[in-house]
Amino acid sequence: MRGLRLLALALGAAAAAVAFAADSGRTPKPNIVIEKGDKCVAPAEEMRREHMNMLKHHRDKTVHEGIRTTQHSLKGCIDCHASSKNGSVVGGRDNFCQGCHDYAAVKLDCFECHSTRPQPAAQARAATATSGNKP
Amino acid sequence: MSEHEQKTDTPSRRQFIGASIAGLATLALVPGFRLIEIGNARSPDQPASAAQRWGLLIDTDKCASGCTACVTACDVENGLVQTGRPRTDAQWIRKVELKDKSTGESHSLPLMCQHCAEPPCVDVCPTGASFKRADGIVLVDRHICIGCRYCMMACPYKARSFVHEVLTEQKAHAPRGKGCVESCTLCVHRVDEDRQPACAEACTAAGHDAILFGDLKDPNSEISKRLKSRNTTQLRADLKLNTGVRYQGI
Predict the structure, then answer these.
(1) pLDDT tens, N- to C-terminus, chain A (135 residues)
(2) Closest CB from A69, A117, A119 relative to B45
(3) Best B170, B186, B192 residue to mutate vs chain A (most A CBs within 10 Å)
(4) Which of B34, B37, B46, B178 to probe by mutation at the A interface, max A CB count within 10 Å?
(5) Which residues of B119-151 are buried (b: 16+ CB within 10 A; e: fewer)?
């Protein structure tokens, strides 16, 4: 009985080790926690390569022309990916933006000016609609 | 003859529709009104258009001396934090007191970016960060601003501020940071949602109603009507900048 239990334990440990090796490969990977939404605005592969171009294109449209669609906006990123722990996309290695940028050693400049937290826009606007005034 | 038949037909049809699906007809009216609203307010995917020019009309007779409701509202709306170091704190609106020394007549007025049609800040900007939007709002693109501050020197109204210190906790709709020049945006994020700037709203809430926001190009807007009927002033009109902010009573 004890032998059987030991065997089961050993098998379990081996399986876990195999799973771990398959997950991480030869190098450690960033810990990406996607908080909300099961689908981004583009496939993950494309987002990894192109998100900065999408953001840059959109920012010019927004700042200079006043186009405020949400599909490629930084606010959109933050709304879905802000951590449920600290409510932000930066702060630690588990936070969506910072986790990957730290891993890739790419400086993250957006948040020197931009807010890192989702804005309660929907609530604010709902309040505005009912009161006709800014809360 | 057929025309006559149609005419007689139409009312009966109308009556039928009116009687049977009155509820639906009411519903149909609502989208009708919505269409007009959407026609006035720009949808988020449409660029700002030169068909509008946003501006303010400030009635200095109504502006109360000592009241800073507009300044406070601006700070709150845009996340400007006053640290008690006024030489370096950002200020998008300030209250100015005018006094005629000979008569003692005094006026109080808020002074902010005048959103010139010919903005000197845009003329001198070496990078193109200072720009005028199609609808007349003068802005700084902080992505391009290098913080040289030529625009601050060029502005005859001293309307711009330089951000000297690292900022945190910015508002999501008003990104701002160290090393850039900034000024009144006419609450562009609100204008894009068809709302009025925070200062105008606060002035009305404070019971003064001294700041009127509107479209200078729309002849039927309240602001255009008042500009047409009242004697209004552009500050430093001699510079021929064609300001978007006008004053009444000075």
Answers:
(1) 455 554 454 544 444 444 444 455 788 888 888 888 788 999 999 999 999 999 999 999 999 999 999 899 999 999 999 999 999 999 988 899 999 999 999 999 999 999 999 987 544 554 444 444 433
(2) A69
(3) B170
(4) B46
(5) bbbbeebeeebbbbbebbbbbbbbbbbeeeebb
